[in-house]
Amino acid sequence: MEQNWFFPPHQGIRLGDLANQIGAELLDVTVVDRVVRSVAPVYRAKPGDVCYMLSRKSRDELQSCHASAIICDKAISSIIPPNIPVLLASKPHTAFALAGALLYERALRPSRNTSEQGIAPGAFVDPTARLEPDVEVEPMAVIGAGAEIGSGTRIAAGAVIGPDVRIGRDCTIAAGASILCAMIGNNVIIHPGARIGQDGFGYAPGPKGGMIKIVQVGRVIIQDYVEIGANTTIDRGTMDDTVIGEGTKIDNLVQIGHNVRIGRYCGIVSQVGIAGSTRIGDGVMIGGGTGVNGHITVGDGVQIAAMSGVASDVPPGERYGGIPARPMRDFLREIAEMALRASERQKKKGGKDE
């Protein structure tokens, strides 16, 4: 890949310092002063790059690797060429994530769209809004009446912050996002185009066969250190609140219905849809493209495979998959049985042809 000017290399970190900061052991102490400036995949890493390996399946990529260091665990370290220093880590994926954050701090959240700081002349901030010092508001952003925004927060170009919204400190609200009827904690990242706090999908049967809208008068509560992906939508509650727990990470193009409550430190991948009034526990991981029925409970620590359909409650700690979702061991057994029956049918069909 050609030089990436969007994210230029770091000025440099000594390998010894990098090892200390990511909790790794540098096996070759003679290279503590070697400097790394960027990250790269193994197959095209060059001097100055640091990369990582999780599996021996990638060993062929080492033939073209000229990295200044490779992060890996003890089981893989023996296959690393002797000319490439090893940063030994018990959790190499985590260690690499920490290294990337050190080398590319500006890539951790959406960047500024302009070079201006403070309140841009082209922004509209209602006179009744209350902004703490060091808030940035880019051109064409709108801050509604009575809104409150904490110090260190940046509201990017074209974002809309509705009346009386509360946003904490050190948040980033990216371009084109809209936040209504919401209370946002500290250190929250909301990516471009996200829609938070619009009314949910609630209707009652009308007298002439149509539908009558049910008012949605709840809020959205987003706790500290949450990250919400681009074009994700989170509806406000009908009468209660929609809540996203501390540290939860939500991918792009996710739909979260009204009154949903999601626990702490969950991971929800792209194109998941969670219907209204569902309860998601702490530490739940939901794979991409999954649909979750409304008015059910998903317990703490549950893992749901991609493209699943969750129709009923899931007990804590379970691994579910399939449509309808069921325990993973049952799902995989059924898949194996279906494959076996298909193979047997094919054999019989082949025999008749003969």
TrEMBL record:
Pfam families named among the record's database cross-references: Hexapep, LpxD
Entry annotation: catalytic residues: H258 (proton acceptor)
Keyword Signal: no
CDD domains: LbH_LpxD
Annotated GO MF terms: UDP-3-O-[(3R)-3-hydroxyacyl]-glucosamine N-acyltransferase activity
InterPro entries, A to Z: Hexapep, Hexapep_transf_CS, LpxD, Trimer_LpxA-like_sf, UDP_GlcNAc_AcTrfase_non-rep
Ranges of residues in domain UDP-3-O-[3-hydroxymyristoyl] glucosamine N-acyltransferase non-repeat region: 33-101
Family to which this protein belongs: Belongs to the transferase hexapeptide repeat family. LpxD subfamily.
Protein name from the UniProt record: UDP-3-O-acylglucosamine N-acyltransferase
Record's keyword terms, sorted: Acyltransferase, Lipid A biosynthesis, Lipid biosynthesis, Lipid metabolism, Repeat, Transferase
Known catalytic reactions: a UDP-3-O-[(3R)-3-hydroxyacyl]-alpha-D-glucosamine + a (3R)-hydroxyacyl-[ACP] = a UDP-2-N,3-O-bis[(3R)-3-hydroxyacyl]-alpha-D-glucosamine + holo-[ACP] + H(+)
Top EC class, one word: transferase
Coiled coil regions, renumbered to chain: none
Organism, as annotated: Sinorhizobium numidicum
Annotated EC: 2.3.1.191
PANTHER family: UDP-3-O-ACYLGLUCOSAMINE N-ACYLTRANSFERASE, UDP-3-O-ACYLGLUCOSAMINE N-ACYLTRANSFERASE 1, MITOCHONDRIAL-RELATED
Function, as annotated: Catalyzes the N-acylation of UDP-3-O-acylglucosamine using 3-hydroxyacyl-ACP as the acyl donor. Is involved in the biosynthesis of lipid A, a phosphorylated glycolipid that anchors the lipopolysaccharide to the outer membrane of the cell.
Pathway participation: Bacterial outer membrane biogenesis; LPS lipid A biosynthesis
Tagged with keyword Acyltransferase: yes
